[in-house]
Amino acid sequence: MSHQTVAILDYGSQYSQLIARRVREARVYCELLPWNVSRERLDALGPVGIILSGGPASVYDENAPTLPDHILERGVPVLGICYGMQLLAHTLGGQVEPSPVREYGPAELTWIAPDSPIFAGLRAPMKVWMSHGDVITALPEGFVCLASTPTTRYAAMGHPERHIYGLQFHPEVAHTPNGVQILENFLYTICGCRGDWTPANFIEETIERIRAQVGDGRAICALSGGVDSTVTAMLIARAIGDRLTCVFVDHGLLRLNEAEQVMQMFKRFLPARVVKVDAQERFLRALRGVTDPEEKRRRIGHEFIRVFEETSRALGPFQFLGQGTLYPDVIESAGPGSTGHGIAAKIKTHHNVGGLPEDLQFELIEPLRYLFKDEVREVGLALGLPAEVVYRQPFPGPGLAVRILGEVTPERLHTLRLADAIVREEIESAGLGRDVWQYFAVLTPLRTVGVMGDYRTYGHVVAVRAVTSEDGMTADWAHLPYEVLARISTRIVNEVPGVNRVVFDITSKPPGTIEWE
Ligand code: XMP
Q: Looking at the annotation, which residues are catalytic?
């Protein structure tokens, strides 16, 4: 590829992915690699700089991760953060010791070297975020102190001739307000980065790469209407035109009028053949009598694969399959908390159109494999997708099936669709759509007594769920204005036949999850 690359070696910090995102935000391409990455792999990547992340270990721990010889032998600039800095000091002959006080939280640099390129444009005092148990007590030869706090003498160090730098604090977190400037100083001034990682460059390079991969073959791609699969298909379509066929499976578990709206969007923006498969009956049949959430997910995933296979056989042959896999799903883990591949208990079996099994007889095209979600959105905008598609709220692959507690029937789907449309309309017309991560209705299996006019009712209970979140991993319930909640409640009870009560879910995640099933 023609853009410059920075390598980030992951020593297991909970902030490793955040470093990568900050570097990308500075318009520099980077990859997060395990700390013991091979020399050959780095040779292939040809990084213009290397960042060593923090990590939970102490350099004196038995089996503590080390600094492979070939890293410094490359001669490119290196920035060690926290554990990365201690590792540099330890490896190069300095002294690292347990700190008398474990420092965790805000700290202040009270002295900063006036002319160091890493602190260019910055002066003491400066707020930083510390999180460490060890400190450096003697610098290795050739290094100078670049910053101090009242308790940490060597809060930053550097070897100006060798372009090796170390920071005891975390420049990547928001609690270090000037951290972005420090990282940009490293990238631009010290590594000589040009800032060539832009959506336009990405699109151009990706299209070329897909052309080279596919040759004169044909590709198929499943669409959900979400931003990942749409952007994937747009990139492939730009590369190979009508040799791409897109399949949109309408499983009948979509929101009110969603299938038509999504098809119209594809027609306007996607220069490829889009085939809609009407599989509503099939999915409803597969879900008949099923109430267990995991069983619903399993059956929907299974049915989806069958429908997709049949369709690809009927329209094929295809040699390639486009998938919207994102970077957080492919990063190799270095330790607890560092990536998405930790040892986590299974909470839900996810089904989404990006996740077709690999034993389908296709070669994969995964143009988003190295992108974070916010980068996918930027690429979507650069490809000309409208904001309402790019910032569309996430919608689970199993659709309304996991928002109907108990059996999924056509009647219950109809009830939920009407209630859900009201929730969305009211939140959007109150101008809250961008602030709230997800907002929707859930149909509970409860019935309660009410009174309408002079009559007793015995109707269904709808729950309203609205959450704020950064990434869907954790979430808080959205503190919606009472007037908005009141309008939602009044409208649902008045406009949705059979519903006589509305409740609002005030559970955060954890301990709740965003979806109810
Ligand atoms: P939970 O309910 O686990 O959801 O807090 C976290 C995020 O994931 C979405 N979600 C899914 N997305 N297939 C998907 O593509 C699924 O099976 C699925 N289940 C949940 C959910 O909407 C939220 O954004």
A: 82, 170, 172
